[in-house]
Amino acid sequence: MDEARGQWVIALSFSVAYFLAIYPLPRWAEWARPEWVALVLIYWAIALPQRVGIGAAFVAGLLLDVFEGAVLGQNALSLSVLAWFSLLFHQRLRALNLWQQALSVFLMLGVHQILCQWIQNMAGAGAPDLWFLVSAVSGAALWPGVLLVLRHQRRTYHVQ
């Protein structure tokens, strides 16, 4: 039962992230929308690398592609790469203080955004400038809050 409860908490956190990813924002704020699904993925891959990995990232990315109407596979590829980085460095990332983690998250979100832009450019729909990286900045700024909220949920519901 504890394992099922843990899966429920992880699934709910991803559901909230999907909602925040597609919630309509004013046009001027679209560029600054944090990559909520990527932030949740990074957290769970660092906290529970044995449960949330590259396969989960691929499925999460496909769902995000469908929800956003993006090129199918764009987010699946970039979130898989993001999960790979998170899994590769999860022990090092855990040892960093909160602000060093935020800087690391900024770099990982930047790679995620660059991969997505590369795929969009191949499809002829990429951004003409670097404004797409603003979401990496906003995601890194929100990382401490995301970390604290998800850590609290993981500990409250004993997700292991």
Structure description:
The chain is mainly α. It is built from seven helices and no strands. The chain has helices spanning 2-22, 36-47, 54-68, 74-88, 90-95, 98-122, 134-156.
Q: Would you list the SSEs in sequence order as H and E?
A: HHHHHHH
Radius of gyration (Å):
15 Å
The total count of strands amounts to 0
The portion of residues forming beta strands comes to: under 5%
Could you tell me how far the N terminus lies from the C terminus, measured between alpha carbons in angstroms? 12 Å
Identify low-pLDDT runs.
none
Quickly give the structural class. mainly alpha
In percent, how helical is the residue content?
A: over 70%
Average per-residue pLDDT, rounded, comes to 94
Major pleated sheet: none
Q: What overall form do the CA principal axes indicate? A: globular
Per-chain topology:
Layout: H1 2-22, H2 36-47, H3 54-68, H4 74-88, H5 90-95, H6 98-122, H7 134-156
Helix pairs in contact: 1-2, 1-3, 2-4, 2-7, 3-4, 4-6, 6-7
Short description:
Helices cover 73% and strands 0% of the residues. The chain contains 7 helices and no strands.
Features:
mainly alpha, globular
